[in-house]
Amino acid sequence: MRAFSYERATSPEGAAQAAAGIEGAKFIAGGTNLLDLMKLEIETPTYLIDVNGLGLDTIEDTADGGLRIGALVRNTDLAAHARVRRDYGVLTRALVAGASGQLRNKATTAGNLLQRTRCPYFYDTNMPCNKRNRGSGCAALEGVSRSLGIIGTSEHCIATHPSDMAVAMRALDAVVETVDAEGTRRSIPLEDFHVLPGETPDVETSLNASEVITAVTLPAPIGGRHVYHKVRDRASYAFALVSVAAVVQPDGTGRVALGGVAPKPWRRKAAEEAMPNGAAAVMARLLEGADPTEHNAYKVTLAERTLGAVLARAQE
Ligand code: SF4
Fold it and tell me: What pLDDT is attached to residue 1?
């Protein structure tokens, strides 16, 4: 691990100001992903700004009946919160499907959104990776791509976003709140928060360099049956090959987002119009334009069958 400077921030604006103008500055909270990446020298921050003291660890009701989740709320606490369990069950189910109990105790809401891909070539510093070093190439394109993306990818990167939590939040129309060094606040729909790789796979979000996430808000609950189904290689502590977050209403309408298939939680509202017609009809629209590799073409079928199982469970 390389040497770095460290300071503890005491306000969100102060954290943003500390990062502004310092190349290589990074925020750290739970550190469950960043510290691993630093040990491997994939991340080499020169300046670490500890945001654990910002007081952003509460969950509050909003005036419109929704929920405001502080950026530093730990995944375990979010999953266990009474209103999340009652009104946003798909989020609790996605959270407890992620990582391990120990990691969920440390990992934060904002950090979960910002975690990096688990593409094996991203972690192998002997291999070319455009996400690690822009312009170096993509080892996955000629390598083993079984776990990687089938849609939203580019000729420069086919990695997936690894979060379960974000897939559920995408189905719930979550909004990310931020503040920058000038004190300017933004509300970014989660739909626009993660960006597709295109020619710059190293750019993963629409955040500015020194912008700090302060909270994630959920709109008022929409009812329905909430299901999160994650297909993975082993029963725990594994990332999704395919996951489905669904909210299904009694009349068969609803919402669907996919994990494990794209560089961001994958949702197309137009596909949801086909929900009363069943999984095949939804998936034909949701995965229209998919470009799988020979190793991961199975995900197209797996996604459809997983959604079929989810819709059947929602109607039980
Ligand atoms: Fe790197 Fe993306 Fe290629 Fe994986 S898929 S090696 S993260 S550029």
Answer: 74
Give the predicted TM-score (pTM) of the model. 0.98
pLDDT under 50: residue ranges of the chain: none
**Crossing angle of helices 298-314/279-286, nearest 10°?**
130
Res 21: pLDDT: 84
Element containing residue 248 per DSSP (H, E): strand 242-248
pLDDT at 209: 87
Which phi and psi angles does 220 have, rounded to 5°?
-55, 145
CB of 67 closer than 6 A to ligand 1? Answer: no
The Å distance, Cα 39 to ligand 1 centre, comes to 19
**What's the pLDDT at 2?**
85
**Residue 80 in contact with residue 122, Cβ under 8 Å?**
no
> pLDDT value at position 25?
96
Ligand 1 pocket test: pick from 40, 158, 195 the residue with the most ligand atoms within 8 Å of its Cβ.
Answer: 158
Q: Dihedrals φ, ψ of 3, to 5°?
A: -65, 145
Strands 212-218 and 225-231: what pairing? unpaired
Q: Measuring CA to CA, which residue among 123, 122, 148 is closest to residue 262?
A: 148
DSSP-derived letter for residue 44 is -
Question: What pLDDT is stored for residue 123 in this prediction?
Answer: 97
138 Cβ closer than 6 Å to some ligand 1 atom: yes
Ligand 1 centroid to Cα of residue 158, in Å, is: 6
